[in-house]
Design a protein that fits this description.
It contains eight helices and seven strands, in the order αααβαβαββαβααββ. By secondary structure, it is α/β, with parallel strands linked by helices. It is globular. It starts with a helix and ends with a strand.
């Protein structure tokens, strides 16, 4: 019987969780800058990160928003185990939840963050954006993610790692949220581009 997408991702991160933080820094540009930007713009008190992985963004969010309640959601139990260890110093204001983000979860939240997560929701990225719009009525969404690549071989290699790079995320984000800030930047001398987006729910 063929594994489901959820099972594929869970199996993938059973292998990659151990080395994720040591290897992905070469790909995941813009994460810290986005958190710094959010801390200057917002006074968020209830924050949800969808696809929180090993919890490195939650560590940065805890510093940037020292009184906020934080929730991390991820499909992988292996990644959540690392997130719990990485965030032990503020566990009193942190909740970790395993599951998909197909509809709003308990909240409310005034900020929902996606960091290199939406491009891996295949299928499901449309539902996740729609859920965030409903989740943060009156609040904000923030996204940093892969945008595109001019190199077909690199696109195929990323697809093997569950990442879609087809300029597909920004149009839906701009349809669902009023852009507050955002830009597209090149990485590794143009091998690919990534984008940041901060939007207010329409």
């Amino acid at each position: 019987m063929k594994a489901t997408i959820g099972e594929d991702v869970e199996s993938y991160y059973k292998l990659h969780a151990q080395i994720y933080d040591a290897t992905r820094w070469t790909f995941l540009f813009g994460r810290n800058c986005l958190v710094e930007q959010l801390s200057r713009r917002l006074n968020a008190q209830n924050i949800l990160e969808v696809g929180c992985g090993t919890g490195q963004n939650l560590v940065a969010l805890a510093r940037a928003f020292p009184t906020a309640k934080l929730t991390g959601l991820d499909l992988s139990s292996e990644m959540l185990a690392f997130a719990e260890r990485n965030n032990h110093s503020h566990r009193d204001r942190l909740s970790l939840v395993q599951g998909r983000y197909e509809r709003p979860i308990d909240g409310p939240y005034d900020l929902v963050l996606f960091s290199y997560a939406l491009s891996m929701f295949n299928p499901g990225w449309e539902m996740a954006i729609d859920a965030a719009q409903e989740q943060v009525a009156g609040g904000y969404v923030a996204v940093v993610d892969f945008h595109d690549t001019p190199v077909p071989l690199f696109r195929s290699w990323m697809a093997m790692n569950h990442v879609q790079m087809d300029c597909h995320l920004l149009p839906r984000l701009e349809k669902k949220f009023e852009r507050v800030d955002g830009r597209v930047r090149a990485a590794w001398v143009g091998l690919w581009r990534y984008f940041t987006f901060i939007g207010k729910a329409k």
